[in-house]
Amino acid sequence: MKPINVGLLGIGTVGGGTFTVLKRNEEEITRRAGRPIRITAVADKNLELAKSVTGSGVRLTDDAFSVVTDPEIDIVVELIGGYGVAKELVLKAIENGKHVVTANKALLAVHGNEIFAAAQKKGVMVAFEAAVAGGIPIIKALREGLSANRIQWIAGIINGTTNFILSEMRDKGLPFAEVLKEAQRLGYAEADPTFDIEGVDAAHKATLMASIAFGVPVQFDKAYVEGITKLDAADIKYAEQLGYRIKLLGIARRRQQGIELRVHPTLIPEKRLIANVEGAMNAVLVQGDAVGSTLYYGKGAGAEPTASAVIADLVDVTRLHTADPEHRVPHLAFQPDQITDVPVLPIEEVETSYYLRLRVLDKPGVLADVTRILADQSISIDAMLQREPEEGESQTDIIILTHLTIEKNVDTAIAKIESLDSVTSQVIRLRLENL
Ligand code: HSE
């Protein structure tokens, strides 16, 4: 059996894991793929490091372009990340007729339409299981396993760093900044964790899931993105008292008017399985009209969990390498001429429930004013909590949970509430999903 030749771009954590797992499970993987999968070339700036992982028998180079143009290479695995040289290399690989396997969610969420179109034209595959939720085969599930369904919504904990931080804030009652330092010390968060904590990484992943769930182009620029940096430990505590956990969710929902695509801290009922996903773990909940709810749970990052997804793609590509391109699974699950340009709704049009925390003077009539404003915006109250003021304290917190409403109604209500003399600071607003 002639091996299929793979060129690896980047042999850091995931590249190293890919090399190790391919070697360790070589026999089993070959039995599945039908022929051996061989990494024959590796490009990395750090040749010493590359050598220490690969040993001999692999061509090592610091020139990644020599790999994507190498006539011997059938599949290029891109593990460099980012939108810069990675984009050039992926497009060059496609131009040279190579299939591509990538873990690069940022690249695909931002430039996916261009990359998939180029691949389609050239008749090659671009596989990206490792780009979303690491080792969880969520792309496979959405693109193939659930293809009978009209998918209604997806809600995922798809960033391990932020889930770790939120779990620690809740468990230990610590503020965000302190837990972030701990996450960095433990190696969960990057030295520059901006993409994680600001919700950008989760939005990249949600963008990709929305595309394959609904058959729409990738539209990262339309996603609403709010991270956890401003989240106050007090709100985690109040949410808990009301029976909710706060998670950073990536949400994609189909509505009549368009698609909701948003990432933000979200209250979810603590009795939901997904509310109990703790630490750096990931989970994705998918609602399909035929199957109902399905939940996918596992490690969203790390060397071998991510390698598990990369290698699954390598096996897929190997099996389908000789198939007529028309008979392969389409990149975005729907046939390319069936991708429809459904609009992504602006955040003001999103429909969800809300958690509002108000700092108010503890005097008669305050609650009546607030509830009148909510009623005027047709916002119905679901639950309420008032913190008992401390001895001698003249102010207190009121927490209100609303039923479903449209965000712009809440914007209007908040502006009016904040203009009341009895409301002493900005209203804290979080979104709530009952899932
Ligand atoms: N930085 C990501 C996370 C892992 O924290 O989940 C890679 O997608």
Please characterize this protein's 3D structure.
By secondary structure, this protein is an alpha/beta fold. It has three domains: 4-135 and 303-337, Rossmann fold; 138-299, Dihydrodipicolinate Reductase, domain 2 (2-Layer Sandwich); 349-432, 2-Layer Sandwich (Alpha-Beta Plaits). It has 15 helices and 17 strands. It has helices at 13-24, 26-33, 47-54, 64-68, 85-95, 105-122, 138-145, 160-172, 176-185, 194-197, 200-214, 233-241, 303-320, 366-376, 407-418, and strands at 4-9, 37-43, 59-61, 75-78, 99-102, 126-127, 151-157, 224-225, 244-255, 258-269, 281-288, 292-299, 351-361, 381-386, 395-402, 405-406, 428-432. Strands 7, 8, 9, 10, 11, 12, 13, 14, 15, 16 and 17 form an eleven-stranded mixed beta sheet that branches. A hairpin with an 8-residue loop joins β14 (381-386) and β15. α2 packs parallel to α13. It is elongated and about 80 Å long. The N and C termini lie far apart (49 Å). The structure holds L-homoserine. L-homoserine (HSE) is lined by residues 159-161, 196, 201, 300-301.
